[in-house]
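Re: that backbone. Tokens:
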């Protein structure tokens, strides 16, 4: 693989890597560090509190979620886009992790941009904006996500990577269940509490509550937690060291989602510690997990409850092996290197075709030439 000059354009809501919660930023960090390790020249456009071995170009002072001054995040993102694309000629390829926000400028740039589709694609307004830019190359993070939006320029699927070296394999199961990530209606923490209650097993909930979800937590989730004080423990956001210990020490990880989850990074992190996952059948769950081997993919909450006693039949080594094979930073970087080369080659061919196409004379000029010939 030739040494590439890569612009890595990260979201600004969290540092890269994030101190606590932040799936996309964590993936960006793992990919950036692996590409640098492979000898590529990577410039990371991210918040100023990011930590990287690449060249860092700060586009905000710190992660915007930590800003309490009412800053407009879109203003920072527009500045980031201007910073990247005004120096696009420095790079062989631009890797966009801002979803469709970069599309208007990426569509005009001679330097190819690939976009990883981290977000949901099932909303009508989102589908409309993606289809408005049908030539821009997109990298899906699961086959399920890719199938949800036909008619765009999909590249091959590249699964998100997790830091398998950070997560320690634990061969022996613990005695509690885990819910991890974010408190929001589509993540269905209420289902996790219901499952713990039904099987009489302790549930540890390690999750952040964003401002937009505070009311949902206060009125829908907090009362459920308070009603089961001996079974449910809410510990809030945790860092990566705490996450490794919590997931690895668990009996099983619950993933009771109610939306088309594009990937589900916490499932792969759980597998890396050896802990099986019990998931609701939605989004990419059937791709991240091997049903009956590294966990169970279920159609109802009753099925999830019935699967919990069966977890002890599973080999935790199979969980770790699947994480190492499919979700390592090296596997992810292999996929993106191939995507970069494809985008660069396609852009080169497109540029060559444009240079070979003769300019079309205007009708006025053609008429003038015709009259001149008659003279």
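Recovered sequence:
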């Amino acid at each position: 693989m030739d040494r590439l000059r890569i612009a890595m354009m990260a979201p600004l809501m969290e540092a890269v890597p994030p101190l606590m919660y932040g799936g996309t930023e964590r993936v960006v960090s793992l990919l950036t560090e692996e590409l640098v390790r492979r000898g590529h020249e990577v410039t990371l456009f991210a918040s100023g509190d990011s930590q990287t071995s690449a060249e860092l170009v700060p586009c905000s002072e710190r992660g915007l979620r930590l800003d309490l001054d009412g800053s407009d995040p879109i203003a920072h993102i527009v500045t980031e886009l201007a910073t990247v694309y005004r120096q696009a000629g420095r790079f062989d390829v631009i890797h966009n992790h801002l979803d469709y926000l970069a599309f208007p400028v990426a569509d005009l740039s001679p330097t190819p941009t690939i976009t990883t589709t981290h977000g949901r694609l099932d909303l009508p307004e989102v589908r409309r904006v993606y289809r408005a830019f049908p030539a821009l190359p997109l990298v899906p993070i699961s086959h399920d996500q890719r199938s949800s939006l036909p008619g765009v320029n999909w590249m091959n699927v590249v699964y998100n990577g997790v830091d398998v070296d950070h997560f320690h394999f634990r061969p022996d199961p613990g005695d509690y269940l885990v819910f991890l990530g974010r408190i929001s209606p589509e993540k269905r923490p209420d289902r996790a509490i219901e499952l713990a209650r039904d099987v009489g097993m302790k549930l540890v909930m390690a999750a952040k509550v964003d401002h937009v979800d505070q009311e949902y937590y206060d009125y829908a989730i907090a009362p459920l937690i308070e009603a089961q004080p001996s079974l449910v423990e809410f510990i809030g956001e945790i860092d990566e060291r705490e996450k490794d210990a919590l997931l690895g020490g668990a009996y099983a990880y619950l993933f009771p989602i109610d939306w088309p989850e594009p990937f589900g990074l916490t499932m792969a992190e759980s597998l890396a510690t050896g802990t099986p996952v019990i998931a609701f059948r939605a989004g990419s769950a059937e791709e991240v997990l091997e049903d009956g081997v590294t966990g169970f993919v279920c159609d109802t909450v009753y099925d999830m409850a019935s699967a919990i006693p069966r977890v002890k039949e599973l080999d935790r080594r199979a969980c770790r092996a699947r994480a190492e094979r499919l979700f390592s930073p090296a596997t992810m970087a292999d996929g993106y290197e191939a995507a970069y080369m494809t985008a660069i080659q396609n852009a080169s061919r497109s540029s060559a075709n444009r240079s070979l196409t003769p300019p079309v004379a205007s009708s006025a000029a053609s008429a003038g030439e015709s009259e001149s010939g008659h003279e």
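The radius of gyration is 24 Å. Confidence is low (pLDDT under 50) at residues 362-375.
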